[in-house]
Amino acid sequence: MTKLGLTLAVALTAASPVLASSEGNAPPAIGTRADNIASVQRGAKLFFNYCVGCHSLQFMRYSRIADDLGLSEDEVVQNFAAFTNAKIGDTVVSAMPEADAAAWFGKAPPDLSLEARSKGPDWIADYLKSFYVDHSRPLGWNNKRFPGASMPNVLWEMQGIQHAEMGHAKEGGEAHIEGLKLVTPGTQSEAQFHETVKDITSFLQYVGEPAALKRQSMGAWVVLYLAFFTFLAWLLKKEYWKDVH
After folding, report:
1. pLDDT tens for residues 1-33?
2. Taking the complete model, does pTM exceed 0.90, yes or no?
3. pLDDT digit string (tens) for 157-204?
4. Is the pLDDT assigned to residue 45 strictly greater than 60?
5. Is 180:159 a contact under the CB 8 Å cutoff?
6. How far apart are CA 41 and CA 23, in angstroms?
7. Long-range CB pairs of 24-31, under 8 A, 24+ apart, other chains included
8. Of 125, 126, 163, residue with least CA distance to 141
9. Contact predicate 29/85, CB 8 Å
10. How far is Cα 57 from Cα 68, in angstroms, rounded to an integer?
11. Beta strand pairing status for 177-185 and 160-166?
12. Which of 38, 96, 153, 171 has the least C-beta neighbours within 10 A?
C-alpha cells in the first residue's frame, strides 16, 4: 500500500466514529420549503412577534421582504417594522441595544441572517422544540439540542413546559438526557406547535438565501430552454453531417 493510501485509510478509520456519532445525533427532518410563501409569511409574523426583540437580520431589508412575500410596504411597516420603529428601506435590526443584551444574557444574541445556511433548517427546528426547565441556568431554561444555551424559551406559552428525563450516569460520567416530557401543556397541541416551528424555520430558510425563490421559479424555464437548444443543436449537427455519411 502506498503512503497516500495508508494515510487515507487511517484518516477514514479515525473519522468514522465521529461521522457515525454525528449521524446518530442528527435532528429529525422538518420538511420546510422556502418557496411555500404562505408558510414563510406566517413565519415572518412569528419572528417579528417573538424573535426580533433580541435577534437581528442585518442582511435583510424590510423592502425585500415586502417584494418577495407579496406584501405591501404598508403591511410590512405596520406589522413588522413597527416593532423597532424602522423604515421600509432599513435592514432588520433588533430592538435590544447590544450592550444591554450582553449585560442581561452574558453576550449579545447572534444575528440570524445566515443561521439556516450555517446550521440547517432541521437543526433550527429541533432547537426550538428542545427547551426544558433547568433551575441551575441563569434564566431557568436549557436546551437538549444546544446545552448551555443562554436563550430563554420564548415560545413556551404555545409549546408548554418540558422537563428533562435523565438516564443513568455511567461510572465517572454525567447523566445524559434521554428525552423531554411535556409536564404543562401550552396553548397549542403538539401538531400545531410543529407547524409553528416549521413556519419560523421556513422564514429563516428564506432569509438565508432570498434569491432562491427567484432561482427556483426560473429553474423549470432554464431546463426547458436547454432541452430546446439541445434539440436545435442536434438538428443542426444532422444537417451538417448528412453528406458525410
Report:
1. 454 444 434 343 343 333 333 344 889 999 998
2. no
3. 999 999 999 887 776 667 788 899 999 999 999 999 999 999 999 999
4. yes
5. no
6. 32
7. 26/122, 27/120, 27/122, 27/123, 27/125, 27/126, 27/127, 27/145, 28/122, 28/126, 29/122, 30/121, 30/122, 30/124, 30/125, 30/126, 30/197, 30/198, 30/201, 31/198
8. 163
9. no
10. 16
11. antiparallel
12. 171
Place of cell 396553548: 187
Euclidean distance between CA atoms 134 and 148, whole angstroms: 10
C-alpha cell at 232: 436545435
Instruction: Dump pLDDT digits (tens) for 208-223.
Output: 999 887 776 677 778 8
Q: How many CA atoms lie within 13 A of 16 on its CB side?
A: 6
Distance CA 179, CA 43 (A): 27
36 to each of 28, 30, 58, 212, how far by Cα in Å? Answer: 20, 14, 23, 12
- Give start and end residues of each alpha helix (H) in 26-150: 37-50, 62-69, 73-79, 98-105, 115-119, 121-129
H/E run at residue 221: helix 211-241
Residue in 245, 210, 183, 226 with CA at minimum distance from that of residue 116: 210
Spatial distance between the Cα atoms of 29 and 123, rounded to a whole number of angstroms: 9
Which grid cell sits at 72? 405591501
For residue 57, give the nearest of 139, 15, 106, 115 by alpha carbon. 115
DSSP state of 150: -
Quickly count: other Cβ atoms within 10 Å of residue 143's Cβ. 21
Query: Residue 205: how many CB atoms within 10 A of its CB?
Result: 27
